[in-house]
């Protein structure tokens, strides 16, 4: 049974990458598969994506290696690369762990069958582990290639060591992702509006990612310039001990390899044990319901609304209740708000950018750019932000099977379309 569950989850991994293959079923439950050309195209696309990410990691590794390796800080090189891989993998798997472990659509069906809950949990954790291996390998393999090239030491032992470090780091990534998924699920069940909570959390994470992405070169230069001091602090601190052992293990220290393996396996085992004790309770617990006492002195008021107003409220509630809908179709609203905040906080910097042409061009050309081209550029930016607000476009498709409810209502079809357009 465990083998069947693992096989099912591996099929889901392929589906998450857009690669759908035959599941061996017949009839209505037969999976709609892609053609061979479509599968090959998707494989080529993902290979290109992973090679591009690997090339970026290789560039970072080369810059770090040229500075750290001559100083004998091989372990710090792998600490930085390993931390980068851990952050990327956890960032990708954090939200996924919640949906894979606790919010899967077939959780109740599987729990109602004579299948041990530990098998269900273990099969889903293996799915997260496989994804962690993929994301971690994208970082570690280019780093090891660059490391071996700089050290002029390509050996079979280095290949084995690279595989071991990918597995050890993937165990750690899986454990951290499971913790984040558990926390996200537990907090989400206690939040009144889960959709807004999900959107806010996603925006915060995306903002953090883009902040560090835009300032990555500055932080890398800071790491390189202060490598000796940073290495001493990591080596001497208690919190930096796992990182130090991971770096030493990746650089080939046998004792550190054993310690790193023990720490990774122990951490994963503790997280797995806690999840086995709380899995059924978290999965079967319903969302928190706020109970309110009925006040007889306050009589319920029923207000009559026009069909268009009622339909508009329905569309608005649908938009607010779906995090995916809000993020995909309302992100331009966030861009407008962020642009306004930037103009208020960084007004002086924006003015410097506007006046920059006067320092490099003639006065006539600078005036022409400011009066003719600058307003056009601002207009194009506003058009770009507005184009990302397409709430009305998918609203018909989102009705799905419930479209017959709107058709059966005593209202004109024009009122339905106008309500959807008003949301836009």
What would you note in describing this structure?
With 424 residues, the protein is mostly helical. The protein is built from 20 helices and no strands. Helix 10 packs across helix 11 (254-284). The model has no long low-confidence stretch (mean pLDDT 79).
Furnish the topology, listing elements before pairings.
Layout: H1 2-16, H2 36-68, H3 74-101, H4 107-111, H5 117-151, H6 156-188, H7 194-214, H8 216-225, H9 227-236, H10 241-250, H11 254-284, H12 307-321, H13 323-329, H14 331-345, H15 347-355, H16 357-360, H17 363-387, H18 395-399, H19 403-408, H20 413-423
Helix pairs in contact: 1-5, 2-3, 2-5, 3-5, 3-6, 3-10, 5-6, 5-11, 6-11, 7-13, 10-11, 12-20, 14-17
| Integer-rounded radius of gyration | 27 Å
pLDDT < 50 stretches: none
Oligomer: single chain
Shape: globular
Mean pLDDT: 79
Q: Quote the beta fraction.
A: under 5%
Number of H- or I-type helical stretches: 20
- Characterize the main sheet: none
How many β-strand runs?
0
SS-based structural class?
Answer: mainly alpha
Please write the string of helix (H) and strand (E) elements. Answer: HHHHHHHHHHHHHHHHHHHH
How far is the first residue's CA from the last residue's CA?
Answer: 49 Å
* Percent helix range: over 70%
